Amino acid sequence: MFSRVLVANRGEIALRVVRALRELGVTSVVAHSEADADTRAVQEADETVCIGPAPSSRSYLSIPAIIGAANSRHCDAVHPGYGFLSENADFARACADNDLVFIGPSAEVIERMGEKSNAKQTMIAAGVPVVPGSAGAVETVEDARRVADEIGYPLLIKASAGGGGKGMRECWSADDLEHEYDAARAEAKVAFGNDEVYIERLVQHPRHVEIQVLADTHGNAIHLCERDCSVQRRHQKLIEESPSPALTPELRAAMGETAVRAVREVGYVNAGTIEFLLDDQMRYYFMEMNTRIQVEHPVTEQITLTDLVKEQIRIAAGEPMSIAGRAPFSPVGHAFEFRINAEDPENGFRPCPGTITRLVLPGGPGVRVDTHVYQGYRVPPTYDSLVAKIICWGSTRDEALARAERALGETVIEGIKTTLPFHREAIANEYFRKGEVYTNFIDEHMPQYLR
After folding, report:
1. pTM of the entire structure?
2. Given pLDDT bands bounded at 50, 70 and 90, which one contains residue 41?
3. Tell me: the pLDDT tens digits for 335-363?
4. Span 408-419, pLDDT tens digits
5. What is 187-220 written as a DSSP string?
6. According to the model, what pLDDT value does residue 164 have?
7. Which residues of 204-215 are buried (b: 16+ CB within 10 A; e: fewer)?
8. Domains in the chain and their CATH numbers?
9. How many other CB atoms sit within 10 Å of the CB of residue 69?
10. CB 35 within 8 A of CB 55
């Protein structure tokens, strides 16, 4: 096991990693920007080191600053959390070059799976079903028209280096193709510094279902059931649940086995997620792989009684995962996660930084809150708007929903606008309560939140 680990992230995930390290008896060193000197992760860490000013380009995205911080504090490993450099192959390689263990997969695997069109070809070779589309990056609008003629409309144009809905455009007819193609490339260039795009057939009214996987260096590769992430606004996830209301035990087993096959095909080690689209005929298609821990990992922890972050650390240290003998997993109860963002849902989810003047967090049976904020904390305008995750577990979906209604009702956050009103309205929706949730749920049933 490691002696000292640098936590190269911020917010609730940094605090989550600090807590896991403490339980493992490992010294935590939190790398923070000047703007984050008063966060809970900094307060709870064993040691801290400032890595630069507020702009992430000069702190959390600065590979030299983070490597320097790790070396100066004599760390033997780095946990990247999610976002920032967590899926950056150059960072993983820099860690290895400086005798630091990157708590995640190898740089080669990150490169292979991070470039979406290459990942798709890898999955085809592994026998994993994929959405029909281009064989790789589409270089010109003429190539785009050729692909469109082959697979038919509607289409989805996606950034090869993308994620989070950036550089993703729907195209419903040949008349719109050139405009949407150019727009997707421009968005991709701004967001990722890479304007390559590929094209897929648009699967209409799908569910977004992802499989959590773990693999170690001792030959163990397992899946830990699925998460349904279909409640999205502009491809940004807002609510996750596990298990999916749509999956049968047989389909769960099939999708899980497919995910494990994909993991073994690429030689993946550590925690990751295979994301699928599930159509109305219960056919599933590979969408992408996330080579890191995910924001929504707590719902999996709740229904499998595991600690994914501790397993990440054990695997990176060369130990076998502690839960391999418990696989295959079946869901224990039901869990929801609600992302509480510092955003104003009544005004287009506009970011709402500011000082939290009053904070009351929920509790009671089956309720977990992952957050880094406190009363008096100033939410900075510089970073992601996530301020808390409220996770509710119940022995059944109905019980989990009842606890969610109670927990969201108990929560008070004043001084800033948050997404709490959206969540309270969403769980009262009759279609949500029946589990009839697709990626167009907000478009069809809560359109007031699209503006």
Report:
1. 0.91
2. very high
3. 999 999 999 999 999 999 999 999 999 99
4. 999 999 999 999
5. HHHHHHS---EEEEE--SS-EEEEEEEEE-TTS-
6. 67
7. eebbbbbbbbbb
8. 4-103 (3.40.50.20), 132-201 (3.30.1490.20), 207-449 (3.30.470.20)
9. 24
10. no
Contact 245, 438 (CB under 8 A): no
Cβ 84 vs Cβ 9: under 8 Å:
yes
Q: Are 408 and 389 in contact (CB under 8 A)?
A: no
Whose tokens are 């033997």? That residue is: 76
Both tokens of 385, joined, read 């708007």
What element of type H or E holds 290?
Answer: strand 284-290
Nearest C-alpha neighbor of 35 from the set 64, 63, 55: 55
| Residue 94: other Cβ atoms inside 10 A | 20
Question: Would you call 165 helix, strand, or coil by DSSP?
Answer: coil
Contact 306, 324 (CB under 8 A): no
Residues 391 and 389: their CA atoms lie apart, in Å, by 6
Alpha-carbon distance of 45 to 163, in angstroms, equals: 30
Give tens-digit pLDDT for 426-451.
999 999 999 999 999 999 999 999 87
pLDDT of residue 39: 94
- Per cent of the chain over pLDDT 70 is 100
Which residues belong to the active site?
292
Tell me how far apart the alpha carbons of residues 392 and 405 are, in angstroms, rounded to a whole number.
9
Separation in Å, CA 283 to CA 23, 127, 203, 246: 41, 14, 11, 12
